[in-house]
Amino acid sequence: MPKSVNKVILVGNVGKDPEVRYSQSGTPVANFSLDTNERFKDRSGDWQDRTQWHNIVAWQRLAEVVGEYVAKGSKLYVEGKIQTSSWGDAQSGERKYRTDIVVRDLVLLASVRNGTSDRGRGLGLRILHLNPPNGSRPPKTFPFNCVEILATPETRAGGRWHDAGSHDLII
């Protein structure tokens, strides 16, 4: 079977504050909407704007980070995959469908928290979702601006923690 690719890249603005919930097994999941805009000329030569809304889902530690740092109006770069689910509506008996973007990587381009904006500062906080071995954590003092970092052996070089980027948050 030939290789296939399921990859989505979006840059847009968060439509409402993320909702973070926990599954029955205790796994965090964050849901939020993200808008993307396009501008084009119609047949008469007038500029038209079109907004597309996307359902975004983040799981595990990434969901907790989204709940902490992302708010309505935040500008995000999102990488992930398309996932469509379906279910039977109990009331109408109709088949319902929902398409989500499941986040693999997220970059916070501009944040809006507590009524203040980081727009124009170029926050650029990149959140990388990695699986740490045995819950290893870096030392308390880290060489760049981070809140929490969990790393794999690949992010360490010669027994020292490696600076993956000036604003990377590795989870």
Specify the number of helices: 1
Order of strands, main sheet, comes to 1-3-4-6-5
What pattern of helices and strands is seen along the backbone? EEEEHEEEEEEEE
* Multimerization state: single chain
Low-confidence stretches: 117-171
- Going by helix content, strand content and strand pairing, the class is mainly beta
Report the mean per-residue pLDDT as an integer. Answer: 76
Label the overall shape.
globular
**Beta content:** over 45%
Number of strands: 12
Q: Please summarize the sheet with the most strands.
A: 5 strands, mixed, barrel
Write down the Rg. Answer: 19 Å
Percent of residues in helices:
under 10%
Distance between termini? 33 Å
Provide a compact summary of the structure.
The chain has 171 residues and is mainly beta. The chain has one helix and twelve strands, in the order E-E-E-E-H-E-E-E-E-E-E-E-E. It is 6% helix and 49% strand.
Structure description:
6% of the residues lie in helices and 49% in strands. It is built from one helix and twelve strands, in the order ββββαββββββββ. Strands 1-3-4-6-5 form a five-stranded mixed beta barrel. A two-stranded antiparallel sheet has the order 7-8. Strands 10-11 form a two-stranded antiparallel sheet. A hairpin with a 2-residue loop joins strand 7 and strand 8. The longest helix is centred in the middle third of the chain and has 10 residues. The C terminus is likely disordered.
